[in-house]
């Protein structure tokens, strides 16, 4: 069964620093991969998605993620953190893109001035 | 375009009572999904409707949970009787017929607290 692991329930960075949120998936077949963000009192918003077209995926708000099959990873990065990036981030996978999503446990990003 | 609407946004009920959550998908979206996040855990799939039919209900925790989607429009998720472990945030998502998770739009969730 598909599983998604997010390392670190909390990540703290300073404003302007690099953001790196880690995600690993377990699957013998590269799945569809997603990153979602949840701001306080809001729903899940799609940041970006990988569908095998390109290994480096650019999303909204300056985020990007790189699919590395050899490492079964799909880490999320942003070169320079803003205070507004403080939120909870979820990595998710789907085997076909038509089936249900399997989520990681989430990583809360804290941004300090 | 209106998004996915869920209500209530919050609900606090006593153990043993009944609660009904509602989800209004985006108009024209045949796929409707329910997910749940218990505090501190991952978001887990509950079930998937295609129009009014249950396509996959493998994630429903037990028979205290009943989901319906009459007429293929809005959906309800009833918990009866509610137990303490049912507390969490319940998310609904919808997508067009040929999109699945690739084209999800999530609602803002219902925070359910059982006391």
Description:
- The complex is a heterodimer of chains A (113) and B (115).
- Chain A is mostly beta strands.
- In chain A, 0% of the residues lie in helices and 51% in strands.
- In chain A, a hairpin with a 7-residue loop joins strand 10 (87-94) and strand 11 (102-103).
- Chain B has no helices and eleven strands.
- In chain B, the strands form two sheets. In chain B, strands 2, 4, 5, 6, 9, 10 and 11 form a seven-stranded mixed beta sheet that branches. In chain B, strands 1-3-8-7 form a four-stranded antiparallel beta sheet, with no helix packed on it.
- In chain B, a hairpin with a 2-residue loop joins strand 5 (43-50) and strand 6.
- The interface between A and B is medium-sized, with 26 and 24 residues.
In summary, what is this structure?
The complex is a heterodimer of chains A (113) and B (115). Chain A has 113 residues and is mostly beta strands. Chain A contains no helices and twelve strands.
Give the biggest sheet of chain A: 6 strands, mixed
Q: Kindly provide the radius of gyration of chain A, computed on alpha-carbon positions and rounded to a whole number of angstroms.
A: 13 Å
Question: Which ranges of chain B are low-confidence, i.e. pLDDT below 50, for 5 or more consecutive residues?
Answer: none
Give the SSE order of chain A as H and E letters: EEEEEEEEEEEE
Count all strands of chain A and give the number.
12
Structural class of chain B: mainly beta
Largest pleated sheet of chain B: 7 strands, mixed
Rounded mean pLDDT score of chain A: 91
Backbone CA Rg of chain B: 13 Å
Q: Which descriptor suits the 3D outline of chain B?
A: globular
The greatest interface here is: A-B, 26 and 24 residues
């Amino acid at each position: 069964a598909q599983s998604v692991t997010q390392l670190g329930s909390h990540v703290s960075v300073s404003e302007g620093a690099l953001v790196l949120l880690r995600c690993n998936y377990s699957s013998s077949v590269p799945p569809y991969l997603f990153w979602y963000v949840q701001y306080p009192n809001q729903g899940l918003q799609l940041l970006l998605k990988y569908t095998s077209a390109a290994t480096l995926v650019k999303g909204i708000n300056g985020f990007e993620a790189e699919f590395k099959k050899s490492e079964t990873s799909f880490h999320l990065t942003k070169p320079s953190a803003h205070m507004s990036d403080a939120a909870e981030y979820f990595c998710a996978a789907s085997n076909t893109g038509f089936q249900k999503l399997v989520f990681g446990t989430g990583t809360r990003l804290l941004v300090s001035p | 375009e209106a998004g996915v609407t869920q209500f209530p946004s919050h609900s606090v009920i006593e153990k043993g009572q009944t609660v009904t959550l509602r989800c209004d998908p985006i108009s024209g979206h045949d796929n409707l999904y329910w997910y749940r996040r218990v505090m501190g855990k991952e978001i887990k799939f509950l079930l998937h409707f295609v129009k009014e039919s249950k396509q996959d209900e493998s994630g429903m925790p037990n028979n205290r949970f009943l989901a319906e989607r009459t007429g293929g429009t809005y959906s309800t998720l009833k918990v009866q009787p509610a137990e303490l472990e049912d507390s969490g945030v319940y998310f609904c998502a919808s997508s067009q017929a040929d999109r699945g998770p690739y084209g999800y739009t999530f609602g803002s969730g219902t925070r359910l607290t059982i006391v």
